[in-house]
Design a protein that fits this description.
Chain lengths: 190, 645
């Protein structure tokens, strides 16, 4: 019999499918020369521009400060992450169908661990792009590093840089909420 | 006593000065006018206006109501600023049967129309001197096609479009022997002919194709407009010099009381062509097209044209007698009234389309010329506007039942009512107005908010600039009962005619960049990795990239005196408003201005040995000054190897 808790857990897993279709993180840049804004969208499997040619243009701008070119093909995480998400979906469905509550709990813990690793990894990439600068760069400002914030806004030379979760992150949050609710309800259903 | 007189004189002078100033400021409009034309910083204009650049051969793009100039589109004239007509890719656009003609006299911009309303796809403009019609793309604001008109002595009555842009028309201002040949000029009446051309516009691509020409008596065909609504199958052309004079035309072509408006049924013409009534005649002309993907012009030489003779085609063409050397011919939004500007006439004659059809049915003719029936004036005239000002030339419509006619000699715009033919208002122009323009004012749906006076003479209106003064446009509010002058602004060249369209129609299709992925130019380099220099005999090809803020390669050695050095430069940017320039010291061609994603080629023939710097001539970025390089030129006999980095 399908209980509400099971149904919630199934939804929780299926919601993660949406990560194939929406980005998880935004980095938005504002500068006098870009009245319409320019930005990056980070997906589980790729990095794209907010507008069609933004990635191309951001790389062009970044070369002045000696930042490495952002080449999505060279970032291994973007190749691994889709498998991890599929894994989570399958594990989530299994824990929905198996009667033991602890499976749901373990799934929540695994998700939390993966999220923490993901955020840390993202931070390290930002750190690397922001600090590992070409020493021959045309623009060198003593003491200046160009690491965007993890969440929030920071002025980097002429660029007001805002980093924030995108729709994908909110959907992960919803998935988590449903899983926790499922775990809570399943305790009462007994 | 003396003191009193001087005192009185002083008061008189002083008070007249005040009065003069008052009348001046009334003339110039009030604060209210300033508000109406003020477009605040960062705000955008309501209309795009396209003005002919006259003898500059270009088209200028203005905003209304501010009168601000945004762009000059290169059409019939070379432009060393952009490289248009100099670059290897664009040179072909100016090719004609008379060779490379890098200038012209542009007159009448005409927006493409759908159902009689400007649709914002293309702008057409005629070259008056070496007969041509250009088609401009209103997404890129660039010239996309130029077609030459054969059998024409001067393409003035052009390039007006039919209701759904089926055709652009072209009538010859100067009659010439057809085909052109060596004859005595005094044999005019016997040997000289006029031609009226119909250029088919492909509804999808806009490509132009000379469908057929109609051979007409040797008058001077001046202007044209297509019918609309009930008259949509017809086009109307004015003519003067029905005297067929060939010398001192100002006297000899002004003798007849009436000349003619030629009414041509283009649907019937299509039928006659389909029936094989047309004769194929040898005629050399060029059709030049700019392929946007290849960024390359393609010139095709054509060798024949289909010609219809009115004698073989009854019902094709009629003459409507029209007073005194008519200039403009304009059809009102309903398509019923055909207004002719008899420039030496004391009235504005308005013909009726329905009366014309009735007269044709009744064969109400007073004669014929070379097989063209002449309809009786009284049978076709709808009314005459009395006291319309001196030298009436052109008429536009506001869509609210009024017509606005420019009067060159009395330098004014005269507003009159369709149907009653009474003059209701007039406003002076400064000075000597030629055309006038209401946004959509020659269409079925005028946006009747402003009329623009396009003036030939400015005299004291602006700060003086020596003997040569600017021509001007004047923006006049026509929303009230009284016309009200709002703004004067200078124009590029002589702004013969103009067209305007609501900005939002064009903005949504505006092109921002050329996509590198779609760049099919055979000399494009889409990545710095492929930048290189190759020698093929005396030709040196530099396949160069430009991006913020460097060229690749930027050091080139092994060029020799006598080489043909082709710089093929691709702008690798994909960001709006980041063009790069390219300039070489002593380049006897032109500089280049290359838009994002575009490839342009310029030929350099070095004649001296030495080191020649090149650099970006458009301030592109913070390190624009560093965007430069060197070309080394060696003796013809030297053995310096080709080298680049």
């Amino acid at each position: 019999m399908i209980t509400i808790s099971k149904l919630l857990m199934i939804f929780s897993a299926i919601i993660l499918l949406s990560l194939m279709f929406v980005p998880i993180w935004n980095i938005d840049l504002n500068a006098p020369q870009y009245p319409e804004g320019i930005g990056l969208r980070i997906w589980i499997s790729e990095i794209t521009g907010k507008n069609e040619f933004d990635l191309h243009n951001i790389n062009k701008l970044n070369h002045y400060i000696g930042m490495k070119t952002i080449e999505p093909d060279d970032i291994p995480e973007l190749k691994i992450m889709p498998y991890i998400v599929w894994g989570l979906i399958i594990l989530g469905l299994i824990s929905a169908l198996i009667k033991k509550r602890t499976f749901v709990l373990s799934w929540i813990i695994i998700l939390l661990i993966i999220l923490s690793i993901g955020l840390y990894d993202f931070y390290m990439w930002e750190y690397d792009y922001g600090h590992d600068l070409d020493k021959h760069a045309p623009i060198k400002v003593p003491g200046m590093v160009y690491q965007p914030p993890l969440i929030g806004t920071k002025q980097l030379l002429n660029m007001e840089t805002t980093s924030s979760p995108a729709a994908g992150s909110y959907l992960i949050g919803l998935s988590m909420l449903l899983a926790v609710t499922s775990y809570y309800i399943s305790g009462k259903e007994k | 006593m003396k003191i009193k007189i001087i005192f009185a004189l002083a008061i008189t002078v002083f008070s007249s000065a005040i009065l003069y100033n008052c009348s001046q400021s009334n003339n110039l409009g009030s604060d209210d006018a300033a508000k109406k034309v003020y477009v605040a910083p960062g705000d955008k204009d309501e209309f795009y206006a396209f003005m002919s650049g006259g003898f500059s051969g270009h088209v200028s793009v203005y905003g209304l109501p501010s009168g601000r100039l945004f762009k000059v589109i290169n059409v019939f004239a070379q432009s060393p600023e952009t490289g248009y007509g100099y670059s290897e890719e664009s040179k072909g656009m100016l090719q004609t049967s008379l060779g490379f003609i890098p200038w012209d006299d542009a007159h009448h911009p005409e927006l493409s129309q759908t159902d009689g309303v400007p649709d914002g796809r293309w702008l057409f403009i005629n070259a008056n001197n070496t007969p041509r019609i250009a088609r401009l793309n209103l997404s890129s604001f660039e010239t996309e096609e130029i077609i030459e008109i054969p059998n024409s002595g001067g393409n003035h009555g052009s390039p007006f479009v039919t209701e759904n842009t089926e055709y652009c028309v072209a009538s010859t201002r100067f009659s010439v022997p057809i085909p052109n040949r060596d004859v005595e000029i005094s044999s005019y009446k016997e040997n000289f002919k006029g031609s009226i051309s119909f250029i088919k516009v492909d509804p999808k691509s806009g490509k132009l194709n000379l469908a057929f020409q109609i051979l007409v008596p040797g008058f001077n065909y001046d202007l044209a407009h297509a019918g609309k609504g009930p008259s949509k199958d017809w086009c109307f052309f004015t003519s003067y010099n029905s005297e067929q004079a060939n010398s001192l035309l100002e006297i000899n072509a002004s003798q007849n009381d009436k000349d003619f408006v030629a009414a041509i049924n283009w649907k019937a013409a299509e039928k006659f062509v389909a029936e094989g009534k047309g004769k194929s005649m040898p005629a050399e002309y060029f059709s030049n097209y700019f392929d946007e993907e290849k960024q390359q012009s393609v010139s095709n030489k054509k060798t024949s044209v289909i010609v219809l003779n009115p004698k073989d085609c009854p019902g094709l063409i009629y003459y409507l007698p029209t007073p005194k050397s008519p200039h403009g011919v304009d059809v009102d939004p309903s398509g019923e009234y055909i207004v002719a500007g008899g420039k030496l006439a004391t009235v504005i004659p308005v013909h009726s389309f329905s009366k014309m059809i009735a007269a044709i049915d009744k064969k109400d003719f007073i004669g014929n010329i070379d097989g063209i029936p002449i309809i009786k004036y009284e049978s076709v005239i709808a009314g005459e506007v009395q006291d319309p000002g001196l030298g009436p030339l052109h008429t536009e419509f506001d869509g609210k039942g009024y017509a606005y006619t420019s009067a060159f000699i009395s330098s004014e715009i005269v507003k009159w009512k369709l149907g009653t033919w009474e003059v209701v208002d007039r406003i002076p122009t400064y000075y000597s107005i030629g055309h006038l323009m209401i946004p959509g004012g020659d269409s079925k749906n005028p946006w009747g908010k402003y009329v623009i006076a396009l003036n030939k003479i400015t005299k004291d209106r602006y700060l003086p600039t020596g003997p040569e003064l600017t021509q001007s446009a004047q923006l006049i509010d026509i929303t009230g009962d009284k016309m009200k002058l709002l703004l004067d602004f200078p124009t590029i060249g002589e702004p013969h005619y103009a067209q305007a369209i609501p900005a939002e129609i064009l903005i949504k299709n505006n092109k921002r960049i050329y996509e590198l992925e779609k760049n099919k130019n055979s000399n494009a380099v889409l990545s710095e990795k492929n930048a290189r220099v190759e020698r093929k005999g005396k030709d040196v090809h530099v396949y160069m990239t430009a991006t913020r803020s460097h060229f690749k390669p930027d050091n080139i050695e092994g060029i020799k005196v006598g080489d043909n050095v082709y710089f093929h430069i691709t702008n690798l940017e994909q960001d709006w408003d980041i063009p790069h320039g390219f300039a070489v010291k002593g380049l006897r061609n032109s500089e280049l201005l290359i838009m994002p994603g575009q490839t342009k080629t310029i030929l350099w023939k070095p004649e001296q040995v030495g080191i020649f710097p090149f650099y970006c001539s458009d301030f592109c970025s913070a390190l624009h000054q560093e965007m430069s390089g060197y070309a080394r030129v060696s003796q013809t006999s030297s053995n310096v190897a080709l080298k680049f980095n």
